Amino acid sequence: MKSNRIICSAVWVDDGIKYSSQPKNIKSGFVVCGRRHCNCFTTLSLIYDNPAELIHCKVVQGFLSSEDVFLNRKQALPVANHAKQFVGEKLLSGVLISEDLW
Question: Backbone dihedral region of 99: left (phi > 0), alpha (psi from -120 to 50 degrees) or beta?
Fold first, then answer.
């Protein structure tokens, strides 16, 4: 059985609405995924005609795991470390960035 891994960058937008087919730990809002976080924000710009609408939402940058769980940058760091996913040397920032992985 494979261990839990980081599969992609993700941004959680908690707008207080319950959506189907979201990661296991997301009770309200939705998660947008992409190769890098900038790709997630590009997608969000297509969803929201007016970016000011996001001011009323909780927005969290993170990652999606292979266990279908959204992890913020700090929570994702030990998962990537345990799965030995780092490319090159890991900076000691205490949070995970997509450039650490791919």
Answer: alpha
How many other C-beta atoms are found inside a 10 Å radius of the C-beta of residue 77?
A: 21
Distance CA 87, CA 14 (A): 31
For 76-93, the pLDDT digits (tens) are: 999 999 999 988 776 667
SS3 for 35-99 is CCHHHHHHHHHHHCCCHHHHHHCEEEEEEEECCCCEEEHHHHHHHHHHCCCCCCCCCCCCCCCHH
Question: Please, which residues bridge with residue 14 across strands?
Answer: 58
pTM: 0.92
Contact 95, 77 (CB under 8 A): yes
Residue in the structure block whose two tokens are 């992609």:
8
